[in-house]
Structure formats: structure tokens, C-alpha cells
Amino acid sequence: MSRKDPTRPGATGQAVLLCMTRTSPTGQTSEVQITMASNEPIRITRDDLFSPQVEEQLAFQQALRRDLGELEPQPWIVAVVYSSWFYLALAGALGAVCAWMIMEPFFTDIPVAEGDDAAWIDILIFPTVAGFIGLFLGAAEGIMCRNFRRALISGTVGLGVGFGGGLIACFGAGIIFFVMTLLAVQFWENPQPDQMPDGFALLVFIMGRAAAWAVASIPAGLGQGIALREKKVIVNGIIGAVLGGLLGGLLFDPIAMLFTTARGEAALSRAVGFSCIGLLVGLFVGLVETWTKTAWLLMRKGPLAGKQFIIYRDVTVLGSSPKAEIYLFKDEAIEPRHAVIRNRGGRYEIEDCNTADGTYVNGFPITRQFLQPGDQIVLGRTLLEFILREAR
Predict the structure, then answer these.
(1) How far is CA 291 from CA 24, 80, 85, 211, in A?
(2) Which of 153, 167, 191, 312 has the fewest CB atoms lying closer than 10 Å?
(3) Per the domain annotation, does 112 fall within a domain?
(4) Claim: this prediction has a pTM higher than 0.85
């Protein structure tokens, strides 16, 4: 039992609030609040706790609860499909394949004469691949969230940043590859024209390609972060693109050796090699995002049940507007700007935006409340679970 004075202790004629927890005969606990004058002795009997007025108040509080019933466990395949590392890897691979399909008709596996106009393909191939990987990676998150406005904006920015940045990055990548190629030649005991080096020289050559592609892949991972103006997404994109480009560069030459035909035709090897680059860039962008996230919402009930929404910003809007950071659709009770989550120094506070249907945490309506890990947030018919990773 606790006694709280809203003014000052012992003030004559002032009201105090008495808060008590009672246990019903069935074992259910509930809180009872009674307002009394501060100069009156406090006497609470069992009849007071189980009076009709108290029962009526408890029934009213229970009526305010929002219960969505039993939660069905999600199949593992749903968790995989909605994982960013999966759909970003798939998007990156598809983007690279599209770039290959566009550029392959201009390729020739026959050595061209110096000054041939077809040499421009060597300059444009990687910016094109980076541009289409950026396009598909940028659009993927919006498509998965059914937010086609965001998909269009992020995809367009990803294409522009990937291609334009790829042109710039290719200069640095070209210098790295040129230096490493010269170094590989020094270790090549019996150089042959139009042949791959062997032995240690091949290892140096592959390492040079990996380093060059790690640099050239950076623009492919920047699009979504720049479109959303999120520094953390930009950093995740850079790290993921570097790791993906590095590993893809290490695999490219072995793939070329495996799939190049006896007549020297390398179309299939280019298709497989570029696909691996796109897949690995997308995979590592998604993995870095998963490794570095600290707070997120998991949709337990709703049209995207199983989808995670990472909280990046200090202020995150939840609502039915496509402009909301967390877009909740197919729920008429959710307003365009329904609730806001604020990051207050590592503690996350949710606030209802004066909505008609309200915002509920653990079944009870709230105006503003700090969230705890595992809290169940209900907006309309949508249930979101708040998850917070402990600091290490």
C-alpha cells in the first residue's frame, strides 16, 4: 500500500492518492486507486476493496484493453524471406544480371585492335553493374514494405549514385588493378600473351582484382542511405559493398577459368561472375545491417507479419502514410501519422499522436510511455513487438 500527496506531505485539506494492489479470490491482481483528504485516517477494509464501485472501475479498465488473441508462430521460411540479408542478396544478384544482359551484346572475346571503338565497354561495364546493383538494392526495402514511393525514390538514387560513383571509383580501382597486375607479371616465370598468370603470380593478380573491386563496389551500396539521408545506412552500405566486392573479386577469376569455353568464349563466366558480385554485395549489406542494429520492431500480426523494422532515427513515425518511416498499410484504423517513437539517449519512448483509435502497449491505451524490450505495441489490428539489443 502506498500513499502519494500531489502537493506536500501533511497539508491540511489537500487530497492524497492511495494506491493499493488487491488480489481477487481467483488469484488475479489489480491496482485500486482511492483519493482521500490528507487529514483523515486511512482505513481500508476488505469490503472497500471488493465494493461495487471498485468492481465497476476495474471492469472499465479491462474494457479499455486491446487484445488481438493468440499469436501464431511464423514459419521459418517467412523469417528468411523477410530477412534483409536474403532479399538484398537476391536483389543485388538480379541487378547484376540485368546489367550483364544489357552490356553483353557489346562484348567481344576476340582481342580488338588498339583504338577500336569497342574499347569503351571496358570503361562502362563496372559502373553499369554498380548502377543496377544500386537500383535493385535501393528499391528492395520499399518493395518488401509495399512502399512503392520509397522504392521508386531509393531505386532511382541508387541507380544514379551507383553509375556516377562507379565512373569515379573506377579511376582509383583501375590504378590499384594496374599496379597489382604489374606486380603479378614480375612473379610470372613464363609470361604468355592473352593467358592468365599461374602460381604465385595468379594469386597476386586475383588479390589485385579483389582490392580494385572492393573500391569499385562502394557506390553500389550507397543509394538507399543517401535517399533516406541516414548516416548509419550509408555506413552499412559502404562496409557491405566493400566486403561483397572484395569476396566477389577473389572469386571472379576462378569462375572465369571454370566457365570459359575452349574457344575462349566468356559470356557465361561474366554472367556468373557479375551475379556473384551483386549477390555478395547485397548479402553483406544485409548482414552488416543485422549485426549493427540496436532497436527494431517485429511485426507479429499484420500484412507483413515476420518483417523487422529497424529504428535508425531519433524520431520515427509510424502510420499509414507512405512518408512515414514505418509504413503500416491495409488497416483503416491506423492514421497517416499514428504514433511516434523517440530515441532519448538509448531509451525509446512511444507517443500517440492524438488518434481516434489510440495506441496500445501491452494491451493498455497510452499517451506517452517508455518502451521496454518485449513490449507489445498495437495500432489498429497491427501488432508490433519492440526489441532492444543489450549494449556489449
Answers:
(1) 46, 16, 11, 24
(2) 191
(3) yes
(4) no
